[in-house]
Amino acid sequence: MTFSAPVKAMQYLLNHAADLEVVISQDNFADTNLELVSDILAGAASFSEDILAPINQAGDLNPAKLDGDDVIASPGFKEAYEAFVESGWLSLSAPEKIGGAGLPTLVSVAVNEMIYASNMAFGLCPMLTSSAAKAIDAHASDELKATYLPKMVTGEWSGAMDLTEPQAGSDLGPVRTKAELNADGTYAITGQKIFITWGDLDCADNIVHLVLARLPDAPAGSKGISLFLCPKYEVNADGSLGARNSFKAISLEHKIGIHGSPTCVMEFSGAKGWLIGEENRGLACMFTMMNEARLFVGVQGVAIGERAYQAALSFSKDRVQGRVINGEPGAAIIGHPDVRRMLMETKTRLMGARAICMATAAASDLALSHSDKDKRKAAHIRETLLTPIAKAYGSDLGVEAASSGIQIHGGMGYIEETGAAQHYRDARIAPIYEGTNGIQAMDLVGRKLRRDGGLGMNALIDDLTDISNMAPKDLSAALNAGIKTLKEATDIILKSDEADVLTVATNYLRLAGDVVSGGLLIKAAANGEKAGDPLAPNMMNLARYHAKAILPQSAAQLDFIRSGSETVFALPVENLADL
Question: Which CATH number fits domain 7-142: 1.10.540.10, 3.40.50.360, 3.30.70.20, 2.30.40.10?
Fold first, then answer.
């Protein structure tokens, strides 16, 4: 199960689709240049290919184990984590003020895609640590920041977020975990949390949990939830580790995939915690963490899709079955038109989803760093608009890519030896966690579209129109048709009632993803051609495939969007089981 990082594809998109040079031209990134970025990508490729990929299957076959009160990581994971920390990969895009390298999130997206593709189960730990550190930096007291951030930024201490309870999943309003004020100003946290990714491990010296809990006099529902920092080990005044806190993993979930990532049931028994942010504002604080995590879950989808694609491509070059049209006897199945179609579809879609994730990251960087206030605001709107698309579109396509990978393997893909099945099992969680993709679609049409009357989406459509004007004639015509479809779908969403909008939200997100990804691939091809990039003809071929095979699918989504909720709710509930 080898892995080869797609560095050329990443660099091409960074240069010609994601506006890397615009991002690093900002004062915040004055020390970042194209040569440095190239060196970082090369280093990340080597680390992913040589250190993380070789232990991927071992993690799948030998899941993390609970040993007494401690979780023991899969074979090789502890050593790999130590190498990861020593190499400084976790601190890549953390701000310099908290000890990070201060590089753009755009670069981090490319690096982390390699990490997730090489070993998705491993990559979840640093992802959560990075996101937890961002939440602490944004909302915690200076004392808590000074105590925890330095070692979290390096990865010496890991992070976890504890939201879910048996009765509180996507809807966190019913959270029951209690927080009671102690005499010293800390809080005693009591309750049970489930589905806690990397909730315990033997790889890091300490684990910093961000826990949602309810104060005794808190309002009911989501407006009464607060956020608390609970370390596995308390930290002494001199920075050394003290007593173990009173919480632990009491069991590990048996999952269909990402076996190397321990998913814990955590029991808090009066554990000492520190309030982060204001009382009853925990969800707002947690969303700082979750919004970044959602982008990187989209990156995970692209990553595992890339891993599955590479396995399928390699298999198709060796497997011999049937007579290949216009091929010599014994020619491999890659010569079969349908196999070639599946490979082309997968590669094109993954490239488009990768471009969306990069565009989201670039908007995030510009929202924080652009010298022009109005452009910072516009970039923030773009980031928030693209985030649910990046998460849902990227993770959905990861599952589709893994499924196509099994199909290309045929019967060999349905058994475990080839590894194709593991890719599908690993990919399947991404559309679920960090907010299901249905929730992402609801967020897109509700908070991100209807709340501002479509201003953010219309600005994106204007940019797509600019791309169309620079494209070759055939690509321009296809993109214009997609833009027209997206405009009409947006108008329908803005004018329809809530039931209709929520019914077709997923279709709208998919439509938007298809059109935006097509536009970004055309932009990459046209810009690369203009710059004389030798890889531009290859990108142009992908853009043309997208224009002919993927962009036209938006019209089918529009037909359903026009129908609203009537078609979905026409069949009575009692007849859903049987006519």
Answer: 1.10.540.10
